[in-house]
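Please predict the structure of the following assembly.
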Amino acid sequence: MKEGPDIAAIASLIGDPARANMLLALMSGEALTASELAQEAGVAAPTASEHLLKLRDGGLLAVEKQGRHRYYRIADASVASAIESLTGLSEMIRPRRTRPGPKEPALRMARVCYDHLAGDMGVRLYDALIAGKVLRPNGQSLDITRKGAERLSNIGLDLSAIAKARRPVCKPCLDWSARRYHLAGGLGAAIFTLICDKGWARRESASRVVTFTKRGIEQFHDAFGVSR
Amino acid sequence: MKEGPDIAAIASLIGDPARANMLLALMSGEALTASELAQEAGVAAPTASEHLLKLRDGGLLAVEKQGRHRYYRIADASVASAIESLTGLSEMIRPRRTRPGPKEPALRMARVCYDHLAGDMGVRLYDALIAGKVLRPNGQSLDITRKGAERLSNIGLDLSAIAKARRPVCKPCLDWSARRYHLAGGLGAAIFTLICDKGWARRESASRVVTFTKRGIEQFHDAFGVSR
DNA sequence: TTCATGCTTCGGTTTTAGCCGAAGCATCTT
DNA sequence: AAGATGCTTCGGCTAAAACCGAAGCATGAA
C-alpha cells in the first residue's frame, strides 16, 4: 500500500533498548566484541547474539572476525549521523532527564562521533573550513578547493590517500548538541586522526569525550583557522 | 545501568510501520485529521487513535482541536530533521527497493520538508544564501547579515514578523537526497510560502513534490542569487 | 431535541519479539 | 589430545503490543 522508504524497519532496529545501548556504545568509534556489547546492553550472550545478527542484517553494523573474537562496529558514517540525529531529538523532547552530569559539558565541547570530531569544536572546525574557503559547497557535495588542498597537505594530511578510499571524502553530519553541522567522511576522519597523532587532544577511555590540551587548542586553531 | 539519552524510546515510536506511515504523511507539512492518518496508515480508527496518543505523548506530534476534528502535525522541525535523517539512512542501506519510480526524480529535485523547501532546489538556495552573505554561520547558529536583511525585505519578506514568532529563525536541516543542508526555521518556511504565493512553484496535491514553473525558476534564481 | 459524525476508551484475541539455559562449533591454549 | 573460551543455534517460555468490534463521548447539523 505504501511505497515510501521503510524507515520503520530501521527505526525499529534502533528502537530496542538493548540494541540502542549497543549502538551508543559503538559511537565511540572503536570496535567491540560480542561479549562486550552483551555486557553493555545488559543481556545474556545468546540474546546479544540475536540482536547483533539483526543489526548486521539491517546494515547498521559491520563485523570483523579476529581469532575467536568478533569485532562489531558502526557500518557507515551515515548510520552514525542518524544516531546523532535521534540523540538530538531525544535531548530536545526530554530536556533534562537526569541532572546534567559531570561529563555532559565535556561531551558538548568535544566528542567522537564514530570516527570524527563532533561537539562545539567539531562545529567550529566545520565553519572555519567553509569560511576559510578550504571547502566549498558545490551542488550536491562539498569540494576541497585548490588552496584548501595545499593548506591541508601542509598540515600533514595525505589527501590522495583519502581520495583513493572508497568512502566519500566530505560529508556533513548534524550535531545534536549544537544543532549545527560538523565534518564527517574520509576527510573528517583523517583530521581527527591527525589531531590525536599530534597530541593536540586525546580520547578519554570508554567514553566519547575528547580532551584537548591547552597547547593543542592553540595549534588546532592556528592550523585550521578556527576563530577563538 | 545506562545513563545515555533515551534514543530507544523515540526510535521505537518511529519503528512501527503504521506510525512511520503517519509521520511520513505528515512530512508534507500539512496537518491531517485522525481519520486521514488512519487511512494513511492502513489501520482502523481505534488503532490509529492508540498510535496517535503515543506519538503525542512522545512529543513527536502536536494536536490542534478544530470543531469535531483533531488535526495532527509534526511537533517540531527537529522531529522532521530526524525523520529525514532516517530516510537518508534507509536509502543508503537499501539503495533500490523498488524501481526508481516516476516521482522519485521530482522528489529529489524539489520537495516539501515539513514546511520549507528541500531537495536540490532547497540545497542550492541554502548555499546561495551563505555564499551571497545573506546568512552567516555564527558559533551555534545562523545570523542574517545587515545586507541580507535588506535584500530579503526587498523581495517581500516580513522579517520582523518572522523574528517575533517564537520559533528559531534559521535552522539547517539535513537533506536525505542531496546529503547536504537546506534551510529550515521561520525564515525557511517564510521563503517557501513566498515562492508559492508568487506562483513560482506549486505543491502537488497529496505528495511532497514541488513543481517549479519555467518562469518561476528564473525568478527564483534571480531573487536569491542561486547559480544555475 | 434528535441524529450523524469524528474520535477515543474498553475488552479480548493473536501475534511476535525479547529473553535465557542448554547444547553445538570454532578457535586458541596447554 | 584435552580443555578453555567466545560466539552462535535451538527450544521453549513470557510479556508486550498491535489490532479490531462494540460501546461511549463529545461536537456540529437538522
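Chain A has eleven helices and eleven strands. The mean pLDDT of chain A is 90.
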